[in-house]
Each structure stands twice: as C-alpha cells, then as structure tokens.
Amino acid sequence: MNTIQGLLLVDKPSGWTSFDVVNYVRRIVATLENKKPKNCKVGHTGTLDPLATGLLILLIGKEYTRRAGELTKLDKTYEVTMKLGVSSTTADDEGEKTAVSDIVPTVDAVVAALQKFSGDIMQVPPIFSAMKVNGQRAYKLAREGKAVEMEARPVTIHANVLLDYHYPLVRFTSSVSSGTYIRSLVVDLGEELTTGAYMSDLRRTHIDSYEISRASEVKNITVDNLSKILLTLPPNESIQIT
Questions:
Q1: Is the pTM of this model over 0.90?
Q2: For the structural domain made of 6-73+209-229, what CATH number should be given?
Q3: Which one from 49, 92, 188, 201 is the annotated catalytic residue?
Q4: Any catalytic annotation for residue 201?
Q5: For the segment 163-217, what is each residue's pLDDT rounded down to a tens digit?
Q6: What is the 3-state secondary structure of the chain?
Q7: For domain 76-207, which CATH number applies: 3.30.2350.10, 3.30.930.10, 3.30.565.10, 3.40.50.12780?
Q8: Span 106-117, pLDDT tens digits
C-alpha cells in the first residue's frame, strides 16, 4: 500500500473554501492509498476566504500534518484590491454595501495612508471572521444577529506598496505577519481616507519564501501526478523554508 507524505502548494480558486481544497486532495490521497477519505491525513496551514485566491500550503500524511504549527505562523504577502467610497458589512464583496463618500483621494493621500498602517499596529479583526468569541466563531454570532465585540490585537505589517490607483479601485501589495486581517486593514484605510472602503479582491502570493508560481491549480492535481508535485523533506527534521 502506498503511503503519501509531503507538502503541496496549491493555487486556490475563487469560490472554493480552504476545506474544499483539502477534501479534494484527500480524495486523491484516498484513491492512491486505497483507503476511505476520512482515514487520510491532509491539512492546511492557514485558510483563505472563499472569494480569495492564491497560495495554500497543504500537508499530507501523519508525519507532515503533525508539523502544521511550524508553518502557520509564517509571514504572508497579498495582492489587494480595495474599492473606495463604499463600505461592506463583511468588509469584502459578499456583504451588503453602503455608499459612504464621493471624495476622490489624491495618489499622495493613498500612499500616505498605506504608509501609516505599516509597522507594528493594533488591529481589530472583522466580526465576520473565524476568531472565537466566548468559545464561538465570530462569523456565526454575527450571522445570528448577535452583538460581537472584537478586541484589538497586535499585528505587524512589513510593507504596503501601491501598484495602481484608478478611483475607486486601489491595488497594492501587503506583506504581513500571521494573524493579520487584510479586510480590517482595508477598513482602516477607508476610514483614514474618509471615504470608506471594502476589499474587492485578494490574492495570496507568498507564504514566507514559498511563491504562488510554484503552486499547482486544483484542476491540475490528479491521481497520476500528485506524488510528483509534492515537496519532500527528510524525516524527523523540522520543516525548513528554503
């Protein structure tokens, strides 16, 4: 019986949850190992919202899934698009939208805002998030219409770099510490610019030195090639990013 072990880089498509990707790969592993999917060890090292795309790191096999903690706290880089002038109840494109302002900030104002929210800052996670509040997921409480009090916590934003600005859309890259919510960053930027804003697109391009260019699209991961595209590591050694 084949035992599949390794690290898999996946380019998650929009509309898929991170668990959808895990389940897709788990079924492939089950076929290769001649097991039921529930008996196959496959996990990820950090979720992406369903509408977001980009890099997921999956760990396959017991020897790898037990080391997930070594990868979950790594820095990440995103390509972000935010829409000015409008707010969203979820801080992204899924929520109910409300017009806030028709002010058109200058490029200099946008750059200044991006720079202001850099470094070590305190950030309030969005209420529609997987953060736990009194033992329950915040998004579950929010969807039930219950009041959700989210506490600010420290995060590090290494750099925000403007890529393009054509009002109302701002495109920028953001390199951040683990635990940083880009949706919250966008809301903060909208408040700083007095226009309101929500995240209209998000793509994760890096997890530490792992790059999206090395990742496989879900549709290209098959029974025939899974073993060939796994990254292998020496046994009994901590995962090292190279």
A1: no
A2: 3.30.2350.10
A3: 49
A4: no
A5: 999 999 999 999 999 989 999 999 999 999 999 999 999 999 999 989 999 999 9
A6: CCCCCEEEEEEECCCCCHHHHHHHHHHHHHHHHCCCHHHCCEEECCCCCCCCEEEEEEEECHHHHCCCHHHHCCCEEEEEEEEECEEECCCECCCCEEECCCCCCCHHHHHHHHHHCCEEEEECCCCCCCCEECCEEHHHHHHCCCCCCCCCEEEEEEEEEEEEEECCEEEEEEEECCCCCHHHHHHHHHHHCCCCEEEEEEEEEEECCEEHHHCEEHHHCCCCCHHHHCECCCCCCCCCCC
A7: 3.30.2350.10
A8: 999 999 999 999
- Read off the tokens for 236: 């009994």
